[in-house]
Structure prediction request, 1127 residues.
Amino acid sequence: MEPILFKHTEIPDLDRLEVYVDHHGYAAFRRAITELQPQEVTQIVSDSGLAGRGGAGFPTGRKWSFIPKSVLPTYLVVNADESEPGAFKDRELMERNPHQLLEGVAIAAFAIGCQKAFIYIRGEFLYIGEILDAAVAEAYAAGYLGQNVFGSGYNIEIVVHRGAGAYICGEESALLDSLEGYRGFPRLRPPFPAIKGLYGQPTVINNVETIANVPHIVRNGADWYRSYGTDQSPGTKVCSISGPVNRPGNYEMNMGTTFRELLEDRAGGMREGKKLKAYIPGGASAPMLPGTEANIDISLSYEGYREAGSSFGSASFIIIPDDVCILRAQLSLSEFFAHESCGKCIPCREGTPWLAKTVRRIESGQGREEDLPLLLDICDNILGRSFCALGDFSTSNIVASVKYFYDEYEEHIRSQACPYAHQARAVA
Amino acid sequence: MEDHVTLRVDGDEMQVPKGTLLWEACASHGIDIPIFCYHTKLGPVGACRTCLVEVEGQTKGPITACSTPVAEGMVVRTRSPIVEKAQRGILEFLLLNHPLDCPICDRAGECPLQDQTFSYGPGTSRYIEPKRHHVKPIALGPTIALDRERCVLCWRCVRFCAEVAEDKSIVLLDRGDHTMVGTFQEKPYVSNFSGNVIELCPVGALTGRKQRFNFRPWELQNHPSVCPHCPMGCNINVSVRKNDEVIRFLSRDNPEVDDSWLCDRGRFNFEFINSPERLRSPLIRRGDSFEETSWSEALEYIANRLQSIVEEHGPAAVAGVASPRLTNEDLFVFKRFMRDVVGTAAVDHYPRPQVALTSRERTALQALDDKLMPIADLNGAGTIVLLGADPSEREPVLELRIRQAINRHSAQLVVVNPHEIALSSRANATFDYAPERFADMCHQLARGLLSPVSTAATGAISTTSEALEAFLDRVHRSFANGPFAVIYDDSFAGVIDKGDALSAVATFVEALQSIGSVGTLPLLDDCNSMGARDLGILPDGVDGASWGMPFVQRLSAPDSPIRAALILGSNLARDEPDPGFAARLRDLDLLVVHELFLTDTARLADVILPAASFAEKTGTFTNTERRVQVITETVPSPGIARADWEILVDLSQYFDQPLSYTLPQQIWDEIAGRVAAYRGLSLSKIGPTGARPHALQPA
Ligand SMILES: Cc1cc2nc3c(=O)[nH]c(=O)nc-3n(C[C@H](O)[C@H](O)[C@H](O)COP(=O)(O)O)c2cc1C
Ligand code: SF4
Ligand code: SF4
Ligand code: FES
Prediction:
């Protein structure tokens, strides 16, 4: 398959404006603002079946169509906070092909009548922020951004804003708080951002990869896009794969191909001497699956992982090999959520550290019989009770790891020790 | 009922207005849903998740009743197994790290956390990990102590500071389970409204530093009353221990007046009631000192002296001054005593604006008074104008009402003041002037409003025509949205042309009426200044206007006829700037002072009579919007102190025409029958949150 989003893997220096322009760069934007009406752009994106790549998979064209026609100004915000353990695709998209994102932003902004768009980039991506800043400056200088672009009378301004280090600021409404200069807490809904978002104005929030798809769709059409992927999951998906595989990294996959292809062909299979014990398909928030043959053959698609009882999410594959204690893996996930809970709501604020402390206690050989039902019940008391999805996320892997690796939990409790103790130290 | 929706809660159908929050709908139908973070006076935040209920068709599990608006056909369950499990789960979470130091907590006994846990919580905790600890308690500021271990992070204090007082001083620091309440860079929490967070806090995390460990809530009895510390008339509950000790003031929600807030001046000023310095019995001067005496001896002495002064110099030689902190009942009896028993018209109240009103000013006052508006109507104002008035200083809770009108009801604010005031930062427009030029400023604005923007016709403004155009433009833009609420400071402090000020305000108001309807609110001196005015506790003017020369000027005049004075609670010797004035008081043939304390003025008296404080008597106060509100006796007076009206009734027994009141209710009935401002306002109409006589008249 010829890459759509990952052309930089084949074209050197694609991050430079001249090279980007030589490869159809900004042609889609020119077409959009000189030949199309904003609604037509939205329609093309709707028809393409593009769904949000930030995790939830919400249809992108539909999201844009919620923006009221007569309330001005409207805003577009690109979610480049990418902080979920296992996810590292957006950083490559921005680092290696920044203009693809900027062109997508310009087109999406045009579609929703927005003249000022923001890219909210994870603060730790310091040098990538600089790459974006430079690309924005280049695009202004070349007349692709700014006032009266291509003589169309249309103005578009892009602001790159750096976050300050919190996973919760990837949650779209907390992101808006943070962007406005407040501490990031998720906001009460309704009102939804499409009605009252940034500075109380109608706002669309999209993931970097979602937006990066837009120029290609507008240039080549919805049908072309649908020629990739499956019926329910058209297009391609950039998958991050990490862990003891031979070639960890990002791979753009046609949706509908199998995880086996990603693992074995693209990532080169498990490293010497390692066997697949389990994997997490969609970042820390997606339930892990045991490494059975059936699970290795799941199709890379939203429906594929939904049917398997997990979630495709941001397609961030975390590989857990058989010499890793599942409780240790779980502990690191649980401690992440406890650390990143924003503290706004009680179930997540109090529940996530409780989960982490309990897992730690079991792992270190002080588990009790009643701890397993306790863990599951704490999850039950968080899931669907917390203010935002972070609370829910914190429960998904506990429920999955207890379900699939019950024996391993029991073994820890029975022997009052971690059976992997010596190896675990070696990997840690 | 198209503005209503029908929903079904626990099997019962109910109809409520559209947009009502589900929790409010249930509460109005007697269905209890536990809450921590929600508070009817603050916007929903949805943080605690205690109020979860099941709504049919909601696939993602139970939802928060506090933040969900009702919808047509909604089917709600507040008591299902899922809900009960959710509630137990949340309360278990809440208590994980709670120190459970209830036995020594000031809130124990009136703590929602205790109550909710009792009603909805689990019986035990499954938590065996070490608890989170904080240093406790810490001083958040001069008034408030914070115990972070007890805090349930409900955001109420934070939201109060963000939404109501708008000082953003209390904030949340840190993240996750390290989150804690605090202030930016540990700056002390200093606010005129800090005490409100004590009451908002649903646990014992925020406590008053004055009251910590002073009482157990179950020892207290709450008595409804009215704050005596400014003319706003915020409603309070007086908490009393063992029937004789006032422990604290709590707010008592009157949506028309205070909307449940109190300022710190009001809330924390209760210690005077139980002060050991209170006067306990009548004192009579013996040379340079005072000697305790009985009521009969004191009153007989006063009666004899008064009678002989009247015989010798005529009744006009006797004058009386009363404090506008007295009740309407005290003031009415005072006026009757002076006029009908002694026979003098020389009455006055103090403090008040020290001006004699010409008939022009009198007309102006009447015109402004005709437009007196209810405080709650600020919420309907298009523009609120602070005309030389700073509510934050004078009637602090009015500041919060103005902020509410701005934030929730989109009112505009225009501040006309020589100085920057607390509300200036919220103003859409400001106009300043040299402090003594208040009347000029009002006239300029009035002329500006009346002149069309493009014609620079008003020669009276000595500026270049360009500046004039700009000024006119600004005036027209600032006063574009009626209805208007004009708040003016009736004391005209610092104004040189005081005598002109009232008519200047009236001129401005009249000009403003060319744009939209106008309501007025004066800022007054004391809690019953409005009552004192309505009851005519004022000297007659020479030309028939109602305010004659103030007592202070009259007594200071070289040919003053005054030989005897009764001063009820006014501290003239302290408050009058002229150092010679105290000597004038001392030179009187007879000076009688009713007081709570041995004040500077009392020290000059021949006889000092111990008076009951507001907490020790029943009666009424009239607030700034002319709302008559009831105060009730909550504790006994110290020693043999008595209410001012009782003292005067007793004193009148030594005269030919004694007064015969025995109950304050009887006095009010007579006021409602005889005083024009209050005609027809019977006690039965006043009720627990008071009533405005204006409201009784058909519109
Ligand atoms: C705790 C939390 C963290 C999130 N972090 C990210 C993130 O880093 N990047 C992202 O694109 N979306 C993230 N999301 C999802 C966003 O809220 C939002 O759904 C997404 O940005 C929408 O864009 P899309 O429709 O293009 O996917 C997060 C959601 C939650 C609840
Ligand atoms: S679930 Fe609650 S505490 Fe957790 S991140 Fe969301 S709002 Fe914050
Ligand atoms: S201190 Fe009290 S009011 Fe403030 S957040 Fe904590 S519990 Fe709530
Ligand atoms: S009361 Fe509803 S979430 Fe707190």
About this structure: The interface with chain B takes residues 166, 183, 188, 338-347, 349-354, 357-358, 361, 370, 374, 380-381, 383-387 of chain A (CB under 8 Å). Residues 346-366 of chain A form the longest helix (21 residues). The domain at 326-427 of chain A is CATH 1.20.1440.230 (de novo design (two linked rop proteins)). The two ends of chain A are 37 Å apart (CA to CA).
